[in-house]
């Protein structure tokens, strides 16, 4: 049986975690801090659980420099759960803002209010999706399943500019976002993007989504980002986003925890939850949403509305505390330097053997987290041979996505530089043998 040190695992998620955290996790699972009980056995409402929650929030706030006006939620149901949650919650916010405005103009006349809101839903409700890979595609499909395709504006389908395949992000000028009031429209309920798709990563925050000092709601772009696969791997200006979410199981912890960072202005008391009866009458599919995915409910209960897996949260908190302790003042930028260095090593090696290796995505949007490439133009036998050779050296988890094929080396935070160097040596050997 190989030891952890002997195996270099590059799986796409769940992904490796720091060995000291896993070892401490083993102890905490059996007997946490000599209490005679394991962390998975204690109440999520106990002082111990509350301390874990507070520590996780504090470490994350430090790492990302999360500003005052944001709340951190710990949820379940993974990244995919958030595909739905975003729609449930942010379309509700849209309705509530419209309801407030209508009430100001029309007073409490319920029939008139309802008539106006129905008209606005029909004519103006839109959610914008930037589809740059299979995850944002899935998220947009979930929105369409919940509220109906007529409300979903796919502002960008990156495949259209790349021969039907993902792998590039076309110029912003080609995106067709719903215009804000300033641009002559009425804005969308939110703009959704996936910061890191398999192989494709936004190089920076899109210029066209930069806040424009909006002092009214119609000009505010509510930007939502799925950071499941590049969470805590680079510096992020949180203030540009309204919602950031990520499943923990790649860079932060084990499956079972989803982290959500949300602007408090989208939560009560600043934005009330629209009355369920109103939502029923408006007949917008999927609204009101499931209570365990309701941001307002989760925020009000400090993420403890229902049983939160405290052991899983503790793992995430330990990973984050380790990052705080390791990088000090550099915070997440410290991790970013390492992630960039590892990715650079791999891409440089691949590029130095263009006859053997072909990197799949365009250079401008290459992911630092998932390095996707083909061997000898995607020759199935050669790729099998490449993977088998890697396995014999304990370089594992390199097989590409089942629907895409090829090779995918995932370079998450806990993949040590040493392991990347081992892979680089194998890439060199294979190419020159
Ligand atoms: C970017 C991204 N979003 C969402 C998901 C789905 O996450 P989950 O399996 O936790 O629902 C993944 C999973 O790999 C992902 O990489």
TrEMBL record:
Molecular function terms, GO-annotated: O-phospho-L-serine:2-oxoglutarate aminotransferase activity; pyridoxal phosphate binding
Key word Hydrolase present: no
GO cellular component terms listed in the entry, alphabetical order: cytoplasm
SUPFAM superfamilies: PLP-dependent transferases (SSF53383)
Listed EC numbers: 2.6.1.52
GO terms classed as biological process: L-serine biosynthetic process; purine nucleobase biosynthetic process
Pathway: Amino-acid biosynthesis; L-serine biosynthesis; L-serine from 3-phospho-D-glycerate: step 2/3
Family named by the database record: Belongs to the class-V pyridoxal-phosphate-dependent aminotransferase family. SerC subfamily.
Matches recorded under HAMAP family: SerC_aminotrans_5
UniProt-recorded name of the protein: phosphoserine transaminase
């Amino acid at each position: 049986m190989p030891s952890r040190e002997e195996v270099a695992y590059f799986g796409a998620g769940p992904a490796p975690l720091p060995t000291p955290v896993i070892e401490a996790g083993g102890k905490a699972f059996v007997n946490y801090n000599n209490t005679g009980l394991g962390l998975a056995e204690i109440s999520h409402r106990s002082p111990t659980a509350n301390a874990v929650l507070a520590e996780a929030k504090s470490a994350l706030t430090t790492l990302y420099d999360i500003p005052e006006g944001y709340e951190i939620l710990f949820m379940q149901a993974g990244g995919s759960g958030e595909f739905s949650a975003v729609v449930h919650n942010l379309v509700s916010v849209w309705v509530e803002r419209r309801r407030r405005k209508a009430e100001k103009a029309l007073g409490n006349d319920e029939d008139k209010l309802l008539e106006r809101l129905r008209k606005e839903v029909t004519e103006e409700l839109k959610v914008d999706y930037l589809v740059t890979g299979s995850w944002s595609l899935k998220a947009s499909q979930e929105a369409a399943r919940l509220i109906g395709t007529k409300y979903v504006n796919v502002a960008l389908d990156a495949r259209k500019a790349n021969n039907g395949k993902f792998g590039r992000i076309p110029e912003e000028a080609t995106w067709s976002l719903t215009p804000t009031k300033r641009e002559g429209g009425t804005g969308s309920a939110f703009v959704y993007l996936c910061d890191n798709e398999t192989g494709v990563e936004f190089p920076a925050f899109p210029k066209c989504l930069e806040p424009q000092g909006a002092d009214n709601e119609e000009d505010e772009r509510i930007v939502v980002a799925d950071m499941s696969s590049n969470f805590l791997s680079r510096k992020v200006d949180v203030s540009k986003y309204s919602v950031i979410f990520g499943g923990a199981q790649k860079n932060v912890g084990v499956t079972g925890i989803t982290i959500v960072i949300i602007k408090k202005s989208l939560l009560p008391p600043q934005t009330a939850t629209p009355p369920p009866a109103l939502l029923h009458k408006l007949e917008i599919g999927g609204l009101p949403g499931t209570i365990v995915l309701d941001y307002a409910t989760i925020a009000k209960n400090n993420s403890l509305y229902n049983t939160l897996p405290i052991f899983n949260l503790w793992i995430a908190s330990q990973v984050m505390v380790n990052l705080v302790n390791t990088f000090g003042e550099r915070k997440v930028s410290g991790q970013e330097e390492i992630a960039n260095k590892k990715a650079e090593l791999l891409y440089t090696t691949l590029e130095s053997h263009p006859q053997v290796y072909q990197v799949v995505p365009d250079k401008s949007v290459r992911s630092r987290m998932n390095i996707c490439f083909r061997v000898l133009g995607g020759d199935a036998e050669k790729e099998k041979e490449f993977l088998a050779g890697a396995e014999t050296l304990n370089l594992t988890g390199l097989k590409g996505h089942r629907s895409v094929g090829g090779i995918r080396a995932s370079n998450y935070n806990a993949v040590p530089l040493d392991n990347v160097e081992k892979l680089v040596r194998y890439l060199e050997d294979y190419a020159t043998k």
